[in-house]
Design goal:
This protein is of the alpha/beta class and 210 residues long. The chain has eight helices and nine strands. It starts with 6 loop residues before the first helix and ends with a helix.
Length: 210
C-alpha cells in the first residue's frame, strides 16, 4: 500500500525474489507508469528492477487493493501544523485493506509512525471487521493461527542505496503480540541478509523515531 520511494522498491524487490507483488497507489498516473515498466521515481537499479518485475508478471499496480497473504503499509506520515503527525494516510490504507482480510493474514506497517500507531492499525481493522480475530484484541484467542497478525517493521534505507539496503540492513520487527512478531520476522528472514531484531511494536516505533 503506497508506491513511493519505499513502497515501489519493496514491491519490485519482492517480485524479483519470486513473490507475487501487487502494488497499490491512489494516483492513477503512478499506477499506469509502473504497469508500463517505468518507475516514476529515480533510484539506482530501480528502473531495471521494475521493468523486469513487470515483464515477469509478478509485479502489477492498481489503485485499489486485492486479497493477499501479507499487506505492507508504506504510505506517507507527514506533519500537520504544530508538528502534529498526520496519520490520515495510514488510516485510509488500513481501512482500504480491511474488506480483503481473511484469517491468517499479516499486516505490516513500515511507515515511520508515532508510538502506538501499530496498535491503532489493529483497532481500525477491528472496527472494520469485528467478526475477525485481530491480534491485540483480548476478546479473541491471541494464539489462534486464524488471527490477523499486525506488526511494525520501520524502513531503514537511505535514498540512493535503497535496493542494496533492503537486503543488507538489520531490521527491527515488533508485533503487537508475540505471534505477530514471529510471523513478521519469518517474512523478513526470507530476503534480509542483515539481522532481524525482535521486539514489540512500541519499541520498534520508538527505535525508528530515535
Amino acid at each position: 500500500m503506497g508506491l513511493g520511494y519505499i513502497g515501489l522498491p519493496i514491491a519490485g524487490f519482492l517480485a524479483d525474489k519470486g513473490f507475487e507483488a501487487r502494488g497499490v497507489d491512489v494516483n492513477p498516473a503512478v499506477v499506469e507508469t509502473i504497469n508500463a515498466g517505468c518507475p516514476h521515481i529515480h533510484e539506482p537499479e530501480l528502473d531495471h528492477l521494475v521493468k523486469s518485475a513487470v515483464r515477469s508478471g509478478r509485479l502489477k499496480a492498481a489503485i485499489r487493493p486485492n486479497p493477499a497473504d501479507i499487506f505492507i503499509l508504506a504510505v506517507p506520515t507527514p506533519f500537520k501544523d504544530g508538528h502534529e503527525p498526520d496519520l490520515g494516510y495510514v488510516e485510509a490504507a488500513t481501512r482500504a485493506i480491511a474488506s480483503h482480510l481473511v484469517p491468517g493474514n499479516l499486516v505490516i506497517l513500515e511507515s515511520t509512525s508515532p508510538v502506538g500507531t501499530t496498535e491503532q492499525v489493529a483497532h481500525w481493522l477491528a472496527e472494520e471487521r469485528p467478526e475477525l480475530a485481530i491480534a491485540g484484541h483480548t476478546r479473541h484467542q491471541a494464539e489462534s493461527v486464524e488471527t490477523i497478525r499486525v506488526a511494525h517493521c520501520p524502513e531503514r534505507v537511505l535514498p540512493g542505496r535503497i535496493i542494496h539496503e533492503l537486503v543488507e540492513n538489520d531490521r527491527i520487527v515488533g508485533g503487537i503480540d508475540a505471534a505477530s512478531t514471529a510471523a513478521a520476522a519469518a517474512f523478513y528472514r526470507q530476503f534480509v541478509a542483515g539481522k532481524v531484531l525482535l521486539t514489540d511494536s512500541r519499541t520498534a516505533e520508538l527505535a525508528k523515531l530515535t
